[in-house]
Structure to design on (753 residues):
């Protein structure tokens, strides 16, 4: 399926490349009634796309980068990243044979996600992580990355709220705590590590969805237009 | 070929355009349909994927579609890109404009709620003194509602309530589930009617222009369609005072084109239709084009749990099902702090709970999710937003879309009437939940931003007086006799009802009127 689309795309590229070459101005002037010369091949002895339709499908052993590579964090400061890693471990530990946020590389993914998010979301996370650090220093004289689960609970639990639809809590720190709680959970459940563990346990992957490719541009459709005769 | 004049040019292919095409072509009238987007084919355009295979792990590109709360990473490509077709609003007055330009428009994706408007809405001013009456009543639309309900196969139950007119239904006589019966009883105690939902069954699970309307139109051989063309301007002939030519751009190549037509039917969706009229500088001798934008408040509600269904102990028949509480405020009595009314969607869930309903994390959260699984009961608000002159759209002189077409500036906000209504809804639902023995887990009385309901209504309102309305009661421009606007821009007031059935019925009614006028040679 994917390969067929690839070949189709290559064919389409070939057609448009030809058409473009055909539209290049000729050095010799031609009468308006004469079609410009059509170049059927690129420079060189052979057509560019020769053999693609005949070749046997290549069996690519495609893997997702998460399966083997590590995300390079770049957005949060070292202290913020330390707080985020610990927050992830506290809020989403490994349970019931499923990976936790740490195993799902959720902290590293969130560093990426927030780095490409709008500024207000970046600010929410940065100030929230800073607040965790300052609360830990104030209450326990150590970094948030080093507090116990119980100590983390003392900092976090007063700010937990229930909320619904698109209306997170409005106080900034409560907003952060509850948004992060949701993001950490979603990023973990949607991870490959989670899907692999689910599959291993003999369950269906829970995060399957129907993905829509871009419907546009629409040029690959066949027979879409009929020329109308008067 | 280019000299051939089209009988009727239809701009838009959603519910309203599809209905116009069906009615007109079945009367033997040759139609051409223009649509701003491509034709979607779910077999070619979709594939099952795991969230981890997507670039943002299911979160969606955070830069994309910030105003479409309905978008996720799986469906992000089905909505209109806000960067390609931008719109503007003033700081502090956000608007969520949710658009689809695929062939069939938003009729491809809708919640299927299928309601008639009653005279409490159509003649609202006569009832409570606010706003304006529509120039038509339920009796005028009723025969068309019936035919639309037959096409869309609306399932419902006759309830005999004047504010919730009965229709031509596939009768839903299924018994209530146990928790719904408790909800019905709780409503009875405080005079709140709990009724069956009314919903379009459609055919093969789909209730869209593309499977219920357009196939009939194409089958006549009288309809041609051009996808991927964006209409820039409708131009009127200065001598005849009629709209006679439409200018559009090929969205892929940027080639500019035009086509002449005897009649133009505008069905681009409320705000796109009005944007086109404003950009064309036509149909606005009244000066009210763009004004009276309204919609419905959504997003407020409550989430509950039915205690007897927890820990897997639900007896068969206790959970599941849905219900509707149609408007009950300001019918026989008058509320102190808001006009008009709202409906409540009520549903019972046998699936997982949203973790947001628990102030917990980690193992404690997981324990709650396991325990509460299959015990959910939700209530969501749909409330009328008052139609106000000052809620308006205009052309933003400083912003254009990908084809250089001036963008829309949207200037609208909710007021105390809407906020008070939402609070009343949440209080009432919570009271009923307590009475029914449900545990209320979350409450939210704040509506989502305007536009979120995807029910933008008004801005080219109908009326008998050409000085105070854009269209007459047949959806025909007061200024240009051969211009019809058949989408929800014609609405005089929003009502609490999902507008789809009304849009369809009015488009059917307008199209039959147009066909008759064409037969008589008046248009």
């Amino acid at each position: 399926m994917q390969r067929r689309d690839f070949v189709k795309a290559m064919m389409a590229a070939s057609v448009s490349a030809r058409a473009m070459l055909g539209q290049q101005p000729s050095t010799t002037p031609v009468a308006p009634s004469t079609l410009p010369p059509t170049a059927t091949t690129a420079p060189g002895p052979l057509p560019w796309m020769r053999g693609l339709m005949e070749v046997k499908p290549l069996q690519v052993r495609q893997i997702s980068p998460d399966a083997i590579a590590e995300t390079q964090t770049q957005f949060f400061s070292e202290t913020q990243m330390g707080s985020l890693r610990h927050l992830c471990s506290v809020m989403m530990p490994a349970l019931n044979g499923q990976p936790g946020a740490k195993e799902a590389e959720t902290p590293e993914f969130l560093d990426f996600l927030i780095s490409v998010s709008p500024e207000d979301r970046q600010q929410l996370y940065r100030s929230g992580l800073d607040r965790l650090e300052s609360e830990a220093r104030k209450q326990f004289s150590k970094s948030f990355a080093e507090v116990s689960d119980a100590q983390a609970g003392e900092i976090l639990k007063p700010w937990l709220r229930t909320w619904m639809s698109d209306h997170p809590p409005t106080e900034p720190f409560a907003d952060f705590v509850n948004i992060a709680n949701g993001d950490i959970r979603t990023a973990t459940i949607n991870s490959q590590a989670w899907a692999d563990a689910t599959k291993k346990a003999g369950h269906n992957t829970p995060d399957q969805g129907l993905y829509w490719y871009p419907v546009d541009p629409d040029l690959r459709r066949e027979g879409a237009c009929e020329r109308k005769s008067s | 070929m280019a000299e051939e004049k089209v009988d009727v040019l239809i701009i838009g292919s959603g519910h309203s355009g599809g209905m116009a095409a069906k009615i007109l072509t079945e009367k033997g009238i040759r139609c051409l349909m223009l649509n701003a987007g491509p034709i979607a084919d779910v077999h070619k355009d979709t594939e099952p994927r795991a969230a981890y295979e997507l670039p943002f792990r299911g979160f969606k590109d955070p830069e994309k579609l910030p105003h479409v709360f309905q978008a996720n990473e799986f469906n992000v490509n089905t909505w209109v890109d806000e960067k390609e077709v931008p719109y503007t609003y003033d700081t502090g007055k956000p608007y969520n404009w949710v658009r689809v330009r695929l062939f069939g428009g938003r009729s491809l994706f809708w919640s299927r709620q299928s309601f008639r408007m009653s005279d409490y809405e159509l003649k609202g001013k006569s009832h409570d003194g606010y706003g304006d009456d529509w120039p038509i009543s339920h009796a005028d639309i009723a025969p068309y509602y019936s035919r639309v309900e037959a096409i869309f196969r609306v399932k419902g139950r006759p309830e005999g309530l004047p504010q919730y007119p009965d229709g031509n239904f596939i009768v839903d006589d299924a018994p209530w589930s146990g928790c719904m019966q408790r909800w019905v009883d709780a409503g009875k105690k405080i005079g709140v009617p709990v009724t069956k939902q009314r919903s379009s069954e459609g055919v093969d699970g789909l209730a869209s222009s593309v499977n219920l309307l357009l196939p009939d139109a194409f089958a006549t051989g009288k309809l041609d369609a051009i996808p991927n063309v964006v209409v820039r301007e409708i131009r009127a002939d200065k001598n005849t005072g009629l709209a006679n030519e439409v200018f559009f751009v090929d969205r892929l190549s940027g080639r500019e084109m035009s086509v002449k037509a005897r009649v133009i039917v505008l069905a681009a969706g409320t705000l796109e239709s009005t944007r086109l009229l404003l950009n064309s500088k036509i149909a606005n001798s009244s000066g009210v084009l763009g004004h009276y934008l309204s919609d419905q408040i959504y997003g407020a509600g409550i989430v509950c749990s039915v205690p007897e269904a927890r820990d897997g102990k639900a007896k068969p028949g206790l959970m599941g099902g849905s219900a509707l509480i149609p408007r009950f405020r300001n019918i026989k009595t008058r509320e102190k702090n808001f006009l008009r009314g709202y409906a409540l969607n009520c549903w019972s869930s046998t699936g997982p709970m949203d973790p947001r309903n628990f102030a917990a994390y980690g193992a404690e959260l997981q324990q709650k999710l396991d325990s509460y699984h299959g015990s959910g009961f939700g209530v969501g608000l749909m409330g009328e937003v008052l139609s106000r002159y000052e809620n308006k759209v205009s052309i933003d002189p400083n912003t254009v879309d990908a084809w250089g077409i001036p963008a829309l500036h949207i200037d609208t906000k909710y007021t105390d009437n809407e906020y008070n209504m939402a609070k009343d809804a949440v209080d009432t639902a919570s009271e009923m939940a307590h009475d029914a023995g449900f545990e209320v887990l979350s409450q939210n009385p704040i509506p989502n931003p305007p536009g979120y309901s995807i029910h933008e209504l008004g801005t080219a309102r109908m009326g008998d007086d050409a000085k105070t309305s854009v269209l007459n009661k047949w959806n025909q421009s007061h200024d240009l006799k051969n211009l019809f606007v058949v989408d929800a821009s014609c609405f005089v007031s929003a009502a609490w009802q999902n507008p789809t059935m009304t849009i369809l019925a009015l488009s059917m009614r307008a199209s039959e009127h147009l066909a008759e006028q064409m037969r008589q040679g008046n248009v």
